[in-house]
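If you are new to this repository, start here. Below is one unmodified record pulled from the training split, so you can see the exact layout before writing a loader.
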Amino acid sequence: WDLTATCVFMQQVHKAYPVTGSIATTAAALLSGTTANEASKKPSGALRIGHPSGIMEVDGAVEDDGKNPTLARAALERTARRLMDGNAYIPWSVWPKSAL
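And here is the target side for that same chain:
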């Protein structure tokens, strides 16, 4: 990886790394003179961020005219995971009479 990062949320180390944090980290790593830029392995586009549960790759581009740096592009892939599995209990009173 190019950079290691950890997110602390509610006084606990998060088990992954949030998307918002990864985009901000990538933008900082692409800007000369930032701590993230100096600590990273100088990415040319995609930054590989090592975090507690693996590595995520964020592709980014920064336009810097010397006064107003702008994040021109940020893209990453996320894997889907099941958030819930179970039953929904809906009272009979909300069902239309025709459905009964």
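Two things worth knowing about this chain: The first helix runs from residue 19 to 30. Strands lie at 3-4, 8-9, 12-13, 46-51, 54-63, 70-76.
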